[in-house]
Amino acid sequence: MALFQMWNMAHFPEILYVNRQEVMRTSKIGSLKTYHRGLWYLNDRRYIRYFPSHDPQVGSRIKLLIFKEKRLGKKGTTKDTTTGITREHQEEQVVPPFINCNKQLKTLAKPPSSENVVVDFFKRKKWPEIEARKFFNHYKSTGWKIGGKAKIHDWEAAAENWMIKAGERKRDFFKDPENLKTSKFKNYGEPL
User: Fold this and answer.
1) CA distances (Å), 101 to each of 37, 57, 93, in order?
2) Going by DSSP bridges, is the β-strand pair 71-72/48-51 parallel, antiparallel, or unpaired?
3) Could you tell me the pTM of the whole model?
């Protein structure tokens, strides 16, 4: 990404001259070995052409991949999606068409449209309306985030967790009203 960013800032020249220290700082690489290994990896996979400079005053030369427009064939398949490294040699680049085709798309988290939707949900679960209002007001005040950090992806699941925790709090409250185990008759003359 750092190479592409530098290529973009230089307005996509055919040959990009790069300074090793600048590339390492931009890509947050701290080791020379990692830097060279990464560039040679990209070079071996033919994503770039890397011409190292052994002169510290002259930057290394890099030729980046040039993209063409996609054209659809008769059956809807793509042809000539990418080309080679240089404009002169228009070689075919081997790039997999799908990086991770099994990756599931994230659904956008939507909070409930109104308080009435939450109240109806709580009523279906046979919970009081006041508990629904508590839930709605609490998460509305936090921006529909759990712990103020993570967005709620499924507000109904969060509401069910709210119900479970509320039920536990009620049971704990009524379980042992004398949870401190103190008596009402104390002898203050007795030393601790």
Assistant:
1) 28, 45, 20
2) unpaired
3) 0.38
Its sign, for the CA torsion 5, 50, 44, 11, is positive
**C-beta of residue 132 within 8 angstroms of C-beta of residue 122:** yes
Q: Return the pLDDT at 91.
A: 45
∠ Cα 26 32 37 (to 5°)? 90
Per-residue pLDDT of 39-98, as tens digits, reads: 888 888 888 888 888 777 788 888 887 665 555 555 555 555 444 444 444 444 444 444
What's the gap between Cα 20 and its chain centre?
29
CA–CA gap between residue 73 and residue 96 (Å, rounded)? 18
CA 157 to chain CA centroid, nearest Å: 21
**What are the φ and ψ backbone dihedral angles of 150, each rounded to 5 degrees?**
-90, 130
* Tally of helices (H runs) and strands (E runs) in the chain: 6, 7
Count Cβ atoms within 10 A of the Cβ of residue 173 and give its class: 0-12 exposed, 13-18 middle, 19 or more buried. Answer: exposed
Phi, psi of 73 (to 5 degrees): -85, -165
**Residues 43 and 49 sit within 8 Å (Cβ to Cβ):** yes
